[in-house]
Design goal:
- InterPro entries: DHquinase_II (IPR001874), DHquinase_II_CS (IPR018509), DHquinase_II_sf (IPR036441).
- It is a single chain.
- The chain is α/β, with parallel strands linked by helices.
- The chain has a single domain, classed as 3-Layer(aba) Sandwich (Rossmann fold), CATH 3.40.50.
- The chain contains five helices and five strands; from the N terminus they run βααβαβαββα.
- It has a five-stranded parallel β-sheet, with helices on both faces.
- α3 packs parallel to α4.
- The structure holds 1,3,4-trihydroxy-5-OXO-cyclohexanecarboxylic acid (DQA).
- The site of 1,3,4-trihydroxy-5-OXO-cyclohexanecarboxylic acid has 10 residues, from loops.
Length: 145
């Protein structure tokens, strides 16, 4: 069974992008770490990244058939996208929202999340370890508890 890990705009530059905020590790490191955590529980992961809102909507639609749960870092779309919220509302499995930085410690425009209206859990400020924690949680929710 597969867990989708969806990433929004500018996260392709993870590791190079404002490392004082987002750290030095890359999305490939995130994928490797999450794959290890998931494998321990008998799950696999697929990690996607897009800079385009509609592509993320399409990936969520694909997840309806292909994934038992979703970990999503919508990046800046967190704070703007009704379309991503609506797409997540069509998905029946568990959804965990994950932010590398502590958005609540930052500018006030980062304090509101549309995606939180759907997320079963939210992580912020755990660095890329947050993705591992989110995957762990999705594994337990997908396993029925
Ligand atoms: C982010 C926080 C967002 O506010 C920001 O736009 C991002 C990344 C995070 O992971 O901390 O691009 O989602």
């Amino acid at each position: 069974t597969t867990i989708y890990i969806l990433n929004g705009p500018n996260l392709n530059l993870l590791g190079q992008r404002q490392p004082e905020i987002y750290g030095h590790e890359t999305l490939a490191d995130v994928e490797r770490r999450c794959a290890e955590v998931a494998a321990e529980k008998g799950f696999s992961v697929r990690l996607f990244q897009s800079n385009h809102e509609g592509t993320i909507v399409d990936q969520i639609h694909e997840a309806r058939q292909a994934a038992c749960g979703i970990v999503i870092n919508p990046a800046a779309y967190t704070h703007t996208s009704v379309a991503i919220l609506d797409a997540l509302n069509t998905f029946e499995g568990p959804v965990i929202e994950c932010h590398i930085s502590n958005v609540h410690k930052r500018e006030s425009f980062r304090h509101h999340s549309y995606v939180s209206l759907r997320a079963d859990g939210v992580l912020a400020g755990f660095g890329i370890e947050g993705y591992e924690l989110a995957v762990r949680r999705i594994c337990s929710l997908c396993a029925g508890g």
